[in-house]
Amino acid sequence: MAATRGEFSSRFGFIMAAAGSAVGLGNIWGFPTQAASNGGGAFLLVYLVLAFCLAYPALMAELIIGRHAHSNAVQALQLISRGPISKFIGGATGIAGLIVASFILSFYAIVSGWMMAFCINAALTFLDMGESAAWLVEFSLTRNLIFMCLFMLMTIGIISQGVQGGIERWSGRLMPMLIIMLVILVMYVLTLEGAMEGLKVYLLPDFGRVMSPSLIIAALGSAFFSLSLGVGTMLIYGSYLKDEENLPLVGGYVTLVDIGIAVMAGFLIIPAMYVAQHNGIQIFNEAGALISEDTLIFTVLPNLFNTMGTTGLLVSFAFFFLMTIAAVTSSISMLEVPVAYTIENHGAERQKAVWIIGGVITAISATIIFNFEMLFGLVIELTTRYSQPLLALLLCVFVGWIWNREGLLQELKKGNKDVESTFFWKIWPWYVRLVCPLIIGVIFVNSLWG
Ligand code: PHE
């Protein structure tokens, strides 16, 4: 079986692909918007704590299960199960994960479509085709539908090429460019009038808000969404990883890159909001809440680019282009989850599986577009805020309680013979067994009551 499965050809390739999955709209659209509407600094602080203390250990749980089983979540969880009950729960968790991954993709494709439209808008404006350009950045049913479909086609096209040719090649090339671009934009925005006010909001936490249950649950969802957890994505990527790789280390790199980019995006978006406000654009309503959260960055960023004159067009083009790419490297990882399952468990052919599943997700996405007000926010909330952390909790339970400690150790030893004497091994197994499930559980109960 191993011979017929795809595999990442190098550590760099894996890190780029896994970081490519992690880094996406979650970092540059999700995190900064959530931070802006939940008190800036307070949100940043809670996010950082949760990302390192809960999301990283949970990521490790997924990578280890995947690498051990070298198969999709459903099979992998059944493999480490010990009796019929845990086997059933394992299979069900895997299936739930692939359903959630598909729903995430269905809203993700809509927002990614906006990124594409804004990218083309910059190009057309440059070419003096103002009228068509304007249509691209106006919120309309047709535009949303067309660009969602285009984005889905791109995702389907790449995934139909498989692991090395598709996923690895694309992620490795484009991720580094995105990082450089972000750094340059952050440096620029900080020179503008109004930016310092935003910086203060972002960096000075209001400690009174840090314990707010709604803030904590939002930060938890944001961290798990950003690291692509709970739905089997990281598990499947782990399954394509070679046995010699040192898992805690590569997992650590991925986490650092992901969180680093989210935090950096905050340095761009939040100051940019205040720059926009300084330029007369209304960002907050009378009550002090953010106006149109979901589309916030599509108001704030173009305003920023406008301050740059003609160069702004080029920057706008490059930024939205790279965002589209960041979104594709994430969307392919979502589509790979149901696809790998269909291929491995039902013997489907890759091409066929990709097109059928991609088609179904496109249909769900279109349904969301037709009922945007009712469904868009709801799907995001149900999938990212609730399902992802809960599924990740189940995965931690599998690693902590169902799989035996010896099995875990052997798996880790494949990539690091001395792992037994490391800090990681002394802490982590207990951590995923007790701390992660407990804290995620408490946050949930608290948010339901709060
Ligand atoms: N982590 C991705 C992002 O930040 C989103 C994602 C979620 C990807 C779940 C795969 C699975 O944009």
Compact description:
The protein has 450 residues and is an all-alpha fold. The protein has a single domain (2-449), classed as Amino acid/polyamine transporter I. The chain has helices spanning 11-22, 25-37, 41-69, 73-80, 84-126, 130-136, 141-159, 163-189, 195-203, 213-226, 233-239, 247-278, 296-306, 310-346, 350-370, 372-402, 405-413, 423-449.
If you had to describe this structure to a student in words, what would you say it looks like?
The protein has helices spanning 11-22, 25-37, 41-69, 73-80, 84-126, 130-136, 141-159, 163-189, 195-203, 213-226, 233-239, 247-278, 296-306, 310-346, 350-370, 372-402, 405-413, 423-449. It has 18 helices and no strands. It has one domain: Amino acid/polyamine transporter I (Up-down Bundle), CATH 1.20.1740. With 450 residues, it is mainly α. The chain starts with 10 loop residues before the first helix and ends with a helix. The chain binds phenylalanine. Phenylalanine (PHE) binds at residues 21-22, 24-27, 101, 104, 225-226, 228, 231, 233, 330, 333-334.
Q: Main β-sheet: number of strands, strand sense, barrel status?
A: none
**What would the principal axes of the Cα set say about the shape?**
globular
Kindly name the structural category. mainly alpha
Q: Figure out the total of helices.
A: 18
Percent of residues in β-strands: under 5%
State the end-to-end CA separation: 49 Å
Alpha-carbon Rg, integer:
21 Å
Helix percentage: over 70%
Number of domains: 1
The beta-strand count equals 0
Order of helices and strands: HHHHHHHHHHHHHHHHHH
CATH architecture: Up-down Bundle
